[in-house]
Amino acid sequence: MNTFVIIKSIVDLIAVLLLALGIKGLSKVRSAREANQLAAFAMLLAVIGVLIDFLGSSGISFVAWGWIILGSLVGGLLGMVTAKRVPMTAMPETVALFNGCGGMSSLLVAIGVALYPVTQAQETGGITSLVESVSIAASVFVGAITFTGSIIAMAKLQGWLSTPAWMQSRIRHAVNIGFAVISFIAIIQLFTGGNSGLWLLVIGAGLLGIGVTLPIGGADMPVVISLLNSYSGVAAAAAGFVVGSQLLIVAGAMVGAAGLILTQVMCKGMNRSLISVLFGGALGAGSTSSSKESTEYTNITSCSVEECALTLEAAEKVVIVPGYGLAVAQAQHTLREVTRALEASGINVTYAIHPVAGRMPGHMNVLLAEADVPYEQLKEMEIINPEFPATDVVLILGANDVVNPQAKTDSTSPLYGMPVLDVHEARTVFVVKRGMSAGYSGIKNDLFDLPNTSMVFGDAKKVLSDLLVELKELGIGGKG
Question: Is 196 helix (H, G, I), strand (E, B) or coil?
C-alpha cells in the first residue's frame, strides 16, 4: 500500500475520533468551548489529509493543490473575522448562514462530479455509476434545500423578510408539492438521461427549500435551525459518497444524527411535532382564544426599580430567567454585575434555562457564558422547576412564552402542553419588558396578571444598570 495512503488513513481516523469527541463535548456547557476547538482542529486535520492524498497521487495538478490551500486560508480567515465581529443578537442568523454554507459546499461538489466524471464506471454505466448517481442526486437535493432554506431562515431572523399572506394559507402546500414533483422528475431524468435533469433538480430543490422555510414563524426558529444543521450533515455525507471520502461520510453522518436528535429535543421542549413545524405555519395560528377578554390584561401591577431592589435585598434565593430580550438589549454583562452584587451579600443566585429560550438551541447558555457566568449556576428546566416554590424572587429578562402558565392551565391555548418554567410558583416575580407586547406565539401571557407578578417597564440594560445603583445604595455588593 502507498505510504501516502496509509498516512492519510491515519490522519482521517484521528480526525473522525476528534470530531466525535468534539460533538460529545458540546452536550455540556462547561466543556463546550474546548469541544468546539477540538472539532475545529479535526476539520483542519481533514484538510491536511486531502493534501496528503494529493501528494500521493500521480500527475496531480499543483494548481488544484493551491486552490485547496487558498480556499482553506480564505475560509478560515472569514470564519475568524465573523466570530470576532458578530454580536450575540445575530448569532442565530450566523448559525443559519453557516448551515447554508455547508449545504452549498455539498451542492457544488455534487455538481462538479456530475459535470466532470472522475471514474470510468461513471462514464460507462454499471453498479458504481448507479451508486454515484444516487449520491449525486441526494447531495444536490438536500444541499439545495439546506442552502436556500438557511438563507431564508437567516433573512427572517434578521428582519429582512416576512411571511407573505398567501404563504400562510393552504395554497403553500400545493406550491411545495409542485416543487417536490419537479425535483422528483429531475431525479428521474438524472438517472436516465445523464445530466439533463441536474439543473432542474437544483432549481426545484432550491425553490422547495424556500417554500418550506418561508411560512415558518419565529417561535419555531430553534427547531428550524437545528433541522437545517442536520440537513447540512446529510448533504455532506451524500457528498462523501460522491467523491469516495470515508471521512466525509462519517463526519456528515455524525452531524446529521446530532442535528436530528437536537431537533427532537427542541420539538419536545415546545410541545410541537416536526410535521406541525414544517407544515403547520406559525405558532399561534390555530389559537381559539380570540375574544377581547382573552387578549387584554386586567390586573397588571407595575413597580419601580427601587421597589425591585428592596425586594431583592430581603431575598435569600433568586432565580434569573433570561430570554431573547436580554440578547437584544446586550445586557448580559450588566446582569452579571447585578448578580455579583447579590452574591457578595450572601444571596443565592441561579439561572433558569429553557431549552427553546432565544432564537437558536443553546442561545442563552452562550449569551451568559460570554458574561463569565459560572457554568454550575445554569440550571435546565427539569432541574430548576422543583425549586421555584422555595424561591423568593424570580427576575425575568426578555422571556415570554417559556414562562406562560397557559401552557398548563388553558387547554385552548396553542401553548397548551408545552413544558414551561414554573416561575408563577415563586413568592415574587419581576418581569422586565419594554411594553406589553406578546411573544412570538402572539398570545397573552397569564403570568402578567397574577398577584405575585410585577412589571418593571424599560430596556433591560437600563433597568439592570439602575438596579445595580439602587442595590449599592442599599449596601448590597458595596457602596456605589
Answer: coil
Helix (H), strand (E) at residue 154: helix 127-158
Cell numbers given for 379: 440550571
d(CA 94, CA 431): 29
Helix axes 3-25, 29-56, angle to 10 degrees: 170
Pairwise CA distance, residues 158 & 255, whole Å = 25
Q: Is the dihedral of CA 165, 168, 171, 172 positive or negative?
A: positive
Q: How many CB atoms lie within 10 A of CB 65?
A: 15
- Listed in sequence order, the residues at least 6 apart from 417 whose beta carbon sits closer than 8 Å to its beta carbon are 271, 407
Smallest Cα–Cα separation from 249: which of 140, 111, 135, 142?
135
- Rounded to the nearest 10 degrees, what angle do helices 29-56 and 62-85 cross at? 170
Instruction: Please say whether the beta carbons of 230 and 266 come within 8 A.
Output: no
Q: Which three cell numbers stand for residue 93?
A: 442568523
CA distance 390 to 348: 12
Model confidence at 172: pLDDT above 80? yes
**From CA 420, how far away is CA 430, in angstroms rounded?**
17
CA–CA distance, 36 with 33 (Å, rounded to integer): 5
Q: Give me the count of residues in the chain.
A: 480
Place of cell 402578567: 448
- Please report, to the nearest 10 degrees, the dihedral formed by the alpha carbons of residues 73, 76, 82, 83 taken in order: -150
Q: Which alpha helices (DSSP H) does 380-459 contain, by range?
A: 381-384, 406-409
Cell triple for residue 23? 460533538
Helices and strands per DSSP (H, E), number in the chain:
19, 6
Catalytic residue among 12, 220, 401, 466: 401
**What's the whole-number average pLDDT of the chain?**
84
- Local confidence band at 219 (pLDDT 50, 70, 90 cut-offs): low
What is the distance between the alpha carbons of residues 221 and 278, in angstroms, rounded to a whole number? 11
Per-residue confidence (pLDDT) for residue 262, from 0 to 100: 84
Work out the burial of residue 145: count CB atoms within 10 Å of its CB; fewer than 13 is exposed, 13-18 middle, 19 or more buried: buried
Residue 122 has pLDDT above 80, yes or no: no
Calpha distance 430→450 (Å, rounded):
11
Told to judge if 459 belongs to the known catalytic residues of this protein, a careful annotator would answer no
Q: What is the DSSP letter of 320?
A: E
Kindly report the CATH number that applies to the domain delimited by 292-473.
3.40.50.1220
The alpha carbon dihedral of 17, 19, 20, 21 has a sign of positive
Collapsed DSSP state (helix, strand, coil) of residue 281: coil
**C-alpha distance from residue 222 to each of 209, 248, 331 (Å):** 17, 26, 21
CA-nearest of 72, 65, 68, 63 to 43 is 72
| Burial degree of 69 (CB within 10 A; 0-12, 13-18, 19+) | exposed
